[in-house]
Specification:
Largest sheet: 2 strands, antiparallel
Radius of gyration: 18 Å
Number of domains: 1
Helix content: 40-55%
Shape: globular
Structural class: mainly alpha
Order of helices and strands: HHEEHHHEEHHH
Number of helices: 8
Number of strands: 4
Strand content: 5-15%
Strand order of the largest sheet: 1-2
Length: 215
C-alpha cells in the first residue's frame, strides 16, 4: 500500500473543469473506438445467457446522489429447487470470468462517464445500503464523482480490506490533481494486462459485503 502523504491545497475550479471536459470527450471517443468490441460482447452474451445483456444497479455518486450504473452481465440467473438464486460463484460463467479479468464488463460504464454520473478516475461506486454504514470520514469518498478506476484499484483492488480501501479512497479525495488522475489511468492499464488484485483469493468472486466499522 502506498505511503499516505499530507493533504495538499484544494484544486482549482479550472482543473476540475478540465477533468469534466476531458472525461466527456474521452468517453465519447472510447465508445466509438470500442464499439466493435461492445457489439461482439453483447452478441456473445445474448447467445450464451439471453436477455438482458447489461446489468444495471442503483449506486451512490457524488454527494451520495443515486444513479444507475451499467455493466455487462457476467452471471446467469440460475436458481435452486426453491427458486432462490444460486451463489455468485455458481452463477459466474467462464465467459463472465474472462470479462471480469479483462475488465471488459466495465465498458458500458463509458456511458455513465459520458452523461456525467461517473468519472474515469475516482472511488468506485459501492452499494446504496453501505451509505448508512460509513463513518463520517468514510462518507467523504462521495465528495468527488465515482470512477471506473481509482487509487484503491491500482493499489490492490479486491485484494484490499475494506479499511485499506477506504483509506486509499480518502487519500485520493484529499490529494486529487489532474496529474494524479493521469498516473492512475496509466497504472490501471498495467494492472489490467497483468490481471492483478482481481479478488482476495481464487475461490471468491468479489469482496465480502461491508457490514460497517463495528463488524
Amino acid at each position: 500500500m502506498k505511503e499516505i502523504k499530507p493533504k495538499r491545497k484544494s484544486p482549482t475550479y479550472f482543473s476540475r473543469g478540465v477533468k469534466i471536459i476531458a472525461d466527456r470527450v474521452m468517453a465519447a471517443l472510447l465508445l466509438l473506438l470500442f464499439s466493435p468490441i461492445l457489439l461482439v460482447v453483447a452478441i456473445v452474451l445474448r447467445v450464451r445467457m439471453g436477455s438482458p445483456i447489461v446489468f444495471t444497479q442503483a449506486r451512490p455518486g457524488k454527494n451520495s446522489e443515486i444513479f444507475t450504473v451499467f455493466k455487462f452481465r457476467t452471471m446467469t440467473s440460475d436458481c435452486d429447487a426453491a427458486g432462490n438464486l444460486l451463489s455468485d460463484e455458481a452463477r459466474l460463467i467462464p465467459l463472465g470470468q474472462f470479462l471480469r479479468k479483462a475488465s471488459l464488463d466495465e465498458l458500458p460504464q463509458l456511458w455513465n462517464v459520458l452523461i456525467g454520473d461517473m468519472s474515469f478516475v475516482g472511488p468506485r461506486p459501492l452499494l446504496v445500503r453501505y451509505l448508512e454504514r460509513y463513518s463520517p470520514d468514510q462518507a467523504r469518498r462521495h465528495d468527488v464523482p465515482p470512477g471506473i478506476t481509482g487509487w484503491a484499484q491500482i493499489n490492490g483492488r479486491n485484494a484490499l480490506t475494506w479499511d485499506e480501501k477506504f483509506k486509499l479512497d480518502l487519500w485520493y479525495v484529499d490529494n486529487w490533481s489532474l496529474w494524479l488522475d493521469f498516473k492512475i489511468l496509466l497504472l490501471t492499464v498495467k494492472k489490467v494486462f497483468k490481471q492483478e488484485g482481481i479478488s482476495q483469493n481464487a475461490n471468491v468472486v468479489a469482496m465480502p459485503e461491508f457490514m460497517g466499522n463495528d463488524k
